[in-house]
Write a structure and sequence with these properties.
Number of strands: 15
CATH class of the largest domain: Alpha Beta
CATH topology of the largest domain: Rossmann fold
Number of helices: 12
Strand content: 15-25%
Number of domains: 2
Order of helices and strands: EHEHEHEHEHHEHEHEEEEEHEHEHEH
Helix content: 25-40%
Oligomer: single chain
Strand order of the largest sheet: 8-10-7-6-13-14-15
Structural class: alpha/beta
Shape: elongated
Length: 371
């Protein structure tokens, strides 16, 4: 059984969420009306996973999350709104340590909650199995327990995320032939992806010689905020793909949510563009569809695939095909992935040229493209 703590100030939301998880039968459920009540319940109820509303009176969800990660780190799924403000707050929450998020229905919650129920249950079940670093913010937890000063405030948008650095963690590249001068890096991620992108892209220099296209599973209202946030602290220029956009070296292109991002040609130029999401793919933007589109336009030696944290297997099939055809592939290792689903599926298929912890992916990528 999964021990779930539901934290929400709305009696209606508490009732609806409790009913959803009670119906599936494998959850032991406790509820908290306020952040303070939730923090008091942590050592008593000992949840495996927490769902946490962002907007609550008194201590809000971000401050509560900050304290959860200091007092008793455990997987947290944020419940947020599909607005620009909700997107920024959700990305802030993920920088603070939240594993995933689910967006509230746009209309009457009581009438539309059933539309998000299957996804919510799937995300919470996966979050309960997520890897939470026990060393992250260790010094702050010790200071909090001993009553000394120095506990950090919530991360400020536009600064380097917690735990990230400006170094490049070099790792020996796979023993392969030199790469061509021109090519593209394709990155796929899902659950736990935004902090992983912080680490990867924040450690790449402005003169990175290839363009990078990212498929991160997210709603459309979140991917623009993700691109803007990353662009503030990364040396690379980062933007969301909302229209056909020519690819250029040293640029990162984030696929627009609720759609797919694909590569195409306009004359001699390679472009990234948003395509209507296809029912042939379960998650969007689809990593498999992105890699498929690249393989129709480029030789495999011109493509590097990077598959990072995320539930499911999106990207594993096509990156394995890329590997078999002679392209390069990098998979995040189980020791750092929040959910070792997508990269784990690639490794299981034998399609990863390099399997490295998150902090070494940027260095491995640099060593490859600079050969």
């Amino acid at each position: 059984m999964i021990r779930l703590l539901i934290v929400d100030d709305s009696p209606l939301m508490r009732r609806l969420l409790t009913a959803i998880f009670a119906d599936v039968g494998d959850f032991v459920i406790a509820v908290a009306r306020t952040a303070a009540e939730a923090l008091d319940m942590l050592p008593v109820f000992a949840p495996d996973v927490v769902t946490l509303d962002i907007h609550m009176p008194g201590m809000n969800g971000l401050a509560c999350l900050d304290q959860i990660m200091l007092r008793r780190p455990c997987p947290v799924v944020m419940v947020s709104s599909l607005t620009a403000e909700g997107a920024a707050e959700t990305l802030e929450a993920m920088a603070l340590g939240a594993v995933d998020f689910v967006a509230k229905p746009r209309g009457a919650v009581s009438l539309e909650i059933d539309t998000i129920a299957p996804l919510l249950v799937e995300k919470v079940r996966n979050a309960a199995k997520a890897r939470i670093s026990r060393t992250a913010r260790l010094a702050e937890r010790l200071r909090a327990r001993t009553g000394t000063s120095g506990t950090r405030a919530a991360t400020r948008t536009g600064t380097r995320p917690p735990g990230s650095t400006t170094r490049n963690s070099l790792s020996p590249p796979p023993s392969l032939d030199p790469l061509p001068a021109e090519g593209v890096v394709l990155v796929g991620c899902s659950t736990g992806g935004p902090p992983a992108l912080d680490e990867l892209l924040g450690n790449l220099p402005a003169d990175f010689p290839w363009p990078i296209v990212v498929a991160q599973h997210m709603p459309a209202s979140f991917t623009g905020a993700l691109a803007r946030r990353l662009d503030k602290f990364c040396a690379l220029a980062i933007s969301e793909v909302s229209a056909p956009t020519p690819l250029a070296a040293g640029q990162v292109y984030i696929g627009r949510g609720d759609a797919d991002v694909v590569l195409s040609r306009r004359g001699t130029r390679l472009v990234a563009m948003a395509a209507p999401s296809s029912a042939d793919y379960h998650w969007h933007p689809s990593v498999d569809r992105l890699v498929d589109s690249a393989l129709t336009l480029l030789g495999p030696e011109q493509i590097i695939g990077v598959l990072m944290t995320g539930m499911g297997a999106d990207g594993a099939k096509t990156m394995n095909e890329l590997h078999d055809k002679g392209g390069r592939t990098i998979a995040e290792s189980a020791e750092t992935a929040v959910v070792w689903g997508m990269p784990g599926a690639l490794v299981a298929a034998g399609g990863a040229d390099a399997v490295v912890p998150l902090e070494q992916i940027a260095g491995t990528l640099l060593a490859l493209v600079r050969r």
